[in-house]
From TrEMBL:
Protein name: YCII-related domain-containing protein
Record organism: Antrodiella citrinella
Entry-linked InterPro entries: Dimeric_a/b-barrel, Sec-metab_biosynth-assoc, YCII
Domain YCII-related: 8-91
Coiled coil stretches, renumbered: none
UniProt xrefs under Pfam families: YCII
Length: 107
């Protein structure tokens, strides 16, 4: 039996805008990064990282405002399952109402 076809998905996961969001992000960051490492090792996460507020990348502590990732999976449902299990999703870091997942085709 052959493996299922895999497709790439771009995920834009903006953070909530409240003042406590950065503290929530930092409090669960190590668990999030451990999960991201496993997803990378499993071949699911192709690239990922924090989006930085314009201008703050020049400071010692840039202000993170969300995450940008590319996953490879068999379906959009599979990607949503992974996202909904992420501690940034369950821990109210990523804004669930603004999170977007879009099919992505690399050039």
């Amino acid at each position: 039996m052959s493996a299922p076809a895999l497709y790439k998905y771009a995920i834009w996961a903006p953070d909530y805008a409240d003042e406590e969001c950065l503290a929530r992000r930092l409090s669960v960051r190590e668990r999030h990064l451990a999960n991201a490492k496993k997803l990378t090792e499993d071949g699911i996460l192709k690239i990922g990282g924090a989006m930085i507020q314009d201008g703050s990348q020049l400071t010692d502590q840039p202000k993170m405002q969300g995450s940008l990732m590319v996953y490879e999976a068999a379906s959009l449902d599979d990607v949503w399952k992974i996202i909904k299990e992420d501690v940034y999703y369950t821990g109210r870091v990523w804004d669930k109402d603004r999170l977007e997942i879009t099919p992505f085709k690399a050039a």
